[in-house]
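Chain X:
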Amino acid sequence: MAAEPFPAEALPGTEIGGGLPGGYEPSGVVWHPGTSKLLVVSDGGLVSAMNADGTSVDNWNVSGDLEAISVTDPNSPFVYVGVEHPDSIVELNIDTDIVTRTFDLTPWMSGPSSRGLEALTFVPDPADPEGGLFYAGLQEDGKICSFRLPISSSSTVTTVTHLATITPVSGRTDLSGLHYASATTRNC
């Protein structure tokens, strides 16, 4: 697959990190269309929300080495955060600042403390009973696992259904990010 060129209309870039705490190491970012905010996670356990220009920063402490973040529903206050070790997905309510559930992925993906879950995205599917599937990438071996989580059918169940393990490029490791582009219906 060939890389798409960087869009010239996006240049020059905008510095958005000025409002983040010192030592903040961004690991994942996603646009939340319902709040019109960028959501950023750090290795140090912070989830941050900010305007597109980096202003009005809010921070939430979420325990763990956070590596990725995904929005499943623009009308919902729930976001899903990928934790590197132990490999898991945390459900965070950004209206209440409360972690409501943790989904354990270690039966299917587990890497050393600094080579675990590194990428997470949600692919919506109206035909799926939960509204879509999560795809999580493991840095250690470069594989991507797909999961169904009970995000629509329950607010308390933490059962994880593993659907598939994908090897995008044989022999390649160090996967570090995933994003689903709904406009092109492609995983990136």
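Chain Y:
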Amino acid sequence: MVAPGRALGEAVEVSGNDTVPLRIALLVYRGNPTCGGQGVYVRHLSRELALGGHSVTVFSGQPYPEIDPEVELVKIPSLDLYRDGDAFRRPRLRELQSGTDALEFATMLSGGFGEPRSFAHRARLELSRRRGDFDVVHDDQCLGSGLLGMLADGWPLVASIHHPVTIDKALDLGAATGPAKRLSLRRWYGFAEMQARVARRLPRILTVSESSRRDIVGDLGVAPERIAVVPAGVDAAVYRPLPGTGKVPGRIMATASADVVLKGILPLLDALAKLRVDNEEAHLVVVGRLRANSPAAEAIERLGLAGAVRFVTGESDEQLAVRYAQSEVAVVPSLYEGFSLPAVEAMASGVPLVTTTGGALPEVVGDDGEAALLVPPGDPDALAAALGELLGAPGRRAAMGRAGRRRALERFTWAAAARRTAEEYRRVIDPSSSC
């Protein structure tokens, strides 16, 4: 274990007697600190690696992550074609300064998503200028073809795949109405084929659950022996029970994008409407953004939930911890999860959960009734019944909250994630190592 009170730069035992600090380049093509898991993963993993004695430099595309002072941040600007408030923007001609820029813009014009490919090429160029600065390169789910160039350049390379994007693609296509929408989605997800080709050629893949490991083998064709499971963690000093914060009667909390089918917001809204027939206090706070023209906005109006659903964005970890403390129940309605940081944050906060059985969620939250009630994905009736059951049982909520806190502390810490990740770095740096 990493000793309490460890200082930056202090070499600590990582694997066996190997205490030599590593110089790590950590790549993230989108580092949004408040939306999606990549920014959260990179911030906490990089901090714990640095506190474990390693030197860490994060190379990020826009939006940039929030990085702790122990870690260097190198910004790799893209055309930022999907920025908040100006998605699918048309850059000025003077912004197109390279072939990579032109390809990224052309991909957008043809309906595709070019950021993973363009970021990997830009990152390769940046790393070529710092050839002697790093011992290992760790890519976080970009999987652009430029990574194969990095391998050819001689970089020891590890990549994280939290879950295959083929899962998102299949769910979105299944929910699409009409051939035009399906054609558009197939074009958008064109980068998935590139990611699969790249993943099959990388020496080491890290993922966050056994469920994701199976999906990476099945969907991407990666050899199972090249995949290591390293669960993500939670900052249990921030996400913790706050006894001085009062519970809001009927408060349910979720972290779910309103625009991503995979996150299950539509079945959750249906469930809330059913629940409020017998419990008018029941209401929902969603950490996520609601777009005016999204299916979720239409569902809220159709179901008469305008006063019962609130969306919040841009809040700090400390503010989210207070949100959890105010909630009687947290819910993860996803149709699929490769891990689920929100589930672990809720458990660490001592808040009982209702989750689906989609993907890795049972693996994360444990047996039904331990820290969470488990329901089938996409089933509003089951969601409503489980939420109603917990809202009406304060004693059971308290017991499940305590069990969840214990589970989070025992299984999901960033220090453990960093230690295991460093072991995998050493494995690719020296394949003959017994790590």
